[in-house]
Amino acid sequence: MNLGDLVIRKSYGGDVTFRVDNIMQNRAVIKGTEFRLLADSPLEDLVQVPPTRVTERGARAQIKATESLTWLRKDRQIQSQRSGESVSGSTGTWGPSPKEAAYFEVPGKVLHLDGDALYLKKSLSLYEQLRIPAEGHHVNESKMAETLYRLLPRVRPDIVVITGHDGVLKQQQNYDLYSLSSYKNSQNFVAAIRVAREYERNFDALTIVAGACQSHFEALLGNGANFASSPGRILIHALDPVYIAAKASFTSIRDTVNLSDVLSHTISGNQGMGGIETRGSFRIGMPQLQNLATLKVAPSVL
């Protein structure tokens, strides 16, 4: 068995596909290919599988991921339509001339810190598909707080995503689901959230999406996250935090993110992600700019 091999765990019925991240004597550190799960396993419990193999759970996740992306794109089209109607309705009784109808859009800007390089690549690809301005950094979970302290004043994002790998340390005797010490990385996510909230205390001026598989939901929310995982201590899909960030990015500053709508359309559902009422960060501007380079946004013209 080698680094990068795809494997399943026999003791768990092969329900999740992993990639071998590290091998230490007779044990391996493995990372989920679809879910943000970091685990270690005896080598004898692992079975190598071909890249074409998809578990039943993975297949369901892929179907739901496709549905969620379709929903986001449709939602994006609706937002553009509303932007046009807003512009048309703001220029007088007779409506705007074609020149006056031109406008530009400013989606909320995302700063994404990810403890997994492959997930970060997938996330940035999705932001690009949805035309969301985003900056991403692959950062070990233990370094996220200090990295945010350095990046926030420079990037000045509207939305911060703090994610990577996590999990309940079930090998501990009498582990407590409400103690941070029972989790691999929840304490690191909490530290990063605190730095972000010290930078911006207004929950509507900076939206924070935090957590990974089985993270301590109450601690992340209680320390300042707008959205977090995982209320049901379940596995979350790699792209769940991205979907929520995208929804916040394209929700108007005049509206709040529809909680039941966005959570039901995540791949993991409301047992995987939860949150609090939060205002969106999407804005429109007029007239249309000839050069959007300084804003780094995509134009939308009626």
Give a quick rundown of the structure.
The protein is α/β, with parallel strands linked by helices and 302 residues long. Helices cover 33% and strands 20% of the residues.
Structural commentary:
This protein is an alpha/beta fold and 302 residues long. Helices cover 33% and strands 20% of the residues. It contains eight helices and 14 strands. The chain has a six-stranded mixed beta sheet, sandwiched between helices. Strands 4-3-2-1-5 form a five-stranded antiparallel beta sheet, with no helix packed on it. A three-stranded antiparallel beta sheet has the order 13-6-14. Helix 4 packs parallel to helix 5. The C terminus is likely disordered.
